[in-house]
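Example 3.2
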Amino acid sequence: MNPKIRGLLFYAVTACSAVLLIIPMILQHPFVLIFDRYRRKAQFLIAGIWASLTLFPFVKIEYEGLENLPSPDTPAVYVSNHQSFLDIYTLLTLRRSFKFISKTSIFLYPIIGWAMSLLGMIPLKRMDSRSQLDCLKQCIALISKGASVFFFPEGTRSKDGKVAAFKKGAFSVAAKTGAPIVPITVIGTGKIMPSGYETVLNPGSVRVVVHPTMSGTNADDLCNEARNVMAQELV
């Protein structure tokens, strides 16, 4: 099948499943705020179903190292390389409640933006130092409340599949809170939907590798260790 036709079908499935699943998210949200305001596991369960319904007709995903995932109730700082728009879909299939950090403009999108707000995602204005500082403070506060956060330390999608330099924000949060770092390498999404070609969906499979957790009080050391682990996996 032509990759552009596959892309159209992918977005059609995405839209249809999102329209259906946003309804239970809205209906259960008052109860989520009362009983699970910070982790919002019920909302992430629906998000995981949505990601699975969207991906599985088109992409085969293989998982390695799932035993390295912390328990759902353990607050952690998850970090991953970033190659494609598909990465977030792929990571949501891990069935963990972690707060992604996203551009503020995405929150304005119908349905997807609403879902992100219901999930408690963290808005960030790029190139705004005050927004970046507020974002890190929110992450620290969420971890203290028992929630987990998710960073793409490269800050943007890689166009060549290699791991770019990491920003230290995620590792500063882990060092200050004592939360474990969970490094994850996603392999293959960049070939299926390359950065800059979001209307294309090539055939292929994805491999998700969950590495052993890391802990420490030195953000620089954690940053270098996590990047090295991912870079070695991508060789």
